[in-house]
């Protein structure tokens, strides 16, 4: 499966488009809007992360221009930022970008 399909589906599932992606400027909302437009009017709209990843993968295979457009928007949105998502169970979760110096966890 195309890694871009998985990344976009994961970001959507994590709710990045609704708030966490504000630091990404306008590129991320534009990407998600473009994807919604692409699937609008279809009888079956992908609902889960896996369904969206599969649907995007099929779209990217059939329309390389659409994939490139999504890739460009994704690069603009994530070029200087970090998008972390965590799914599952854990006692503690720490997500960081740059660590200069020590990091101690107890």
The percentage helix is 40-55%
Tally of strands: 0
Helix-strand makeup class: mainly alpha
What low-confidence regions span 5 or more consecutive residues with pLDDT below 50? none
Number of helices: 4
- β-strand percent reads under 5%
How many domains? The number is 1
The overall pLDDT, averaged over residues, is 81
Largest sheet data: none
- From the N-terminal CA to the C-terminal CA, the straight-line distance is 38 Å
Element pattern in H and E: HHHH
Shape: elongated
| Radius of gyration over C-alpha positions, nearest whole angstrom | 16 Å
Q: Could you explain how this protein is built, in words?
A:
The chain has 106 residues and is an all-alpha fold. It has one domain (3-78). The chain is 50% helix and 0% strand. It is built from four helices and no strands. Helix 1 packs antiparallel against helix 3. 17% of the residues are buried.
Short description:
The protein is mainly alpha-helical and 106 residues long.
Helix/strand layout:
Elements: H1 3-13, H2 27-39, H3 49-62, H4 64-78
């Amino acid at each position: 499966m195309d890694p871009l399909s998985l990344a976009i589906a994961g970001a959507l599932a994590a709710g990045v488009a609704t708030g966490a992606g504000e630091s990404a400027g306008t590129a991320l909302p534009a990407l998600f809007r473009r994807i919604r437009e692409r699937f609008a009017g279809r009888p079956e709209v992908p609902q889960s992360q896996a369904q969206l990843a599969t649907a995007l993968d099929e779209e990217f295979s059939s329309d390389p221009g659409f994939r490139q457009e999504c890739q460009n928007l994704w690069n603009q949105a994530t070029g200087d930022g970090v998008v972390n998502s965590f799914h599952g169970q854990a006692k503690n979760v720490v997500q960081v970008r740059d660590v200069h110096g020590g990091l101690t966890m107890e």
